[in-house]
Write a structure and sequence with these properties.
By secondary structure, the protein is of the alpha/beta class. It is 46% helix and 11% strand. The protein has a five-stranded parallel sheet with strand order 2-1-3-4-5, with helices on both faces. α6 packs across α7, α6 crosses α8 and α7 packs across α8.
Length: 218
């Protein structure tokens, strides 16, 4: 895979400088950075592989019910890979980020190692579960847990571990269309349970919450 690029949205200059240094050291190109989400929509930020965004932006407080969430929703709807990197560390916020379609959620206390790994994973459409998110998901006691067949679980886990459905098909000795069918059936079951999982990241979260896969499997 070619070099990964990222757009960083944060309104603290010290954070921007520190995160830029981390990414540069890891060989990740910072295409754009700034306090306004608009940097993700204008060149060169528009073409970045991943968008890292803080929830606590000036005039975009998540407690207001809109703001940063609107920006995240627009980015996800446009097909962007979004990593939330914030001071908030509560379970509700972590799960809400996954519900919104973000690739993953990190607290700023988790630092360089996890942020770099999360961005690299998101760029490759691979799941990444840092400690804070793992804790949030393990604490989720949602009762509506779809029951999957052994084959569905096998295909689902293979998809979490592979970069494409074609690789899953080769591993499981199935056609790509059959793999697609298995994954679609799992999504339908979650949707019927009132717990939609439209993105790969959200499906990973559901599977972890429900004990269908374990962190070590990923």
């Amino acid at each position: 895979m070619s070099a990964v690029s990222v757009t960083v949205i944060d309104d603290h200059p010290v954070v921007l400088a520190g995160v830029r240094a981390w990414f540069t050291a890891a060989g990740i190109t910072v295409a754009a950075a700034g306090p306004d989400p608009a940097v993700a929509w204008t060149p060169p930020g528009r073409s970045a592989d991943v968008v890292v965004i803080d929830l606590h932006l000036a005039d975009r407080r998540p407690t207001a019910g809109a703001g940063a969430w609107d920006d995240i929703a627009a980015l996800v709807a446009a097909g962007r890979r979004v990593v939330v990197y914030t001071m908030r560390d509560d379970r509700e916020t972590a799960l809400r980020c996954l519900e919104a379609g973000c690739a993953t959620f990190l607290t700023k206390a988790e630092g360089e190692e996890h942020l770099v790994a999360a961005v690299l994973a998101a760029a490759r459409d691979r799941p990444y579960v840092p400690p804070a998110l793992a804790g949030a998901m393990s604490a989720d006691e949602t009762p509506d847990r779809p029951r999957l067949t052994d084959r569905e679980r096998e295909v689902l886990l293979a998809w979490f571990q592979c970069e494409s459905k074609h690789l899953v098909a080769a591993r499981c000795n199935l056609s790509p269309r059959t793999v697609e069918g298995y994954i679609d059936r799992v999504r339908v079951r979650y949707a019927r349970a009132g717990r939609p999982a439209p993105t790969k990241a959200s499906l990973v979260a559901r599977a972890l919450q429900d004990g269908l896969v374990a962190l070590e499997d990923l």
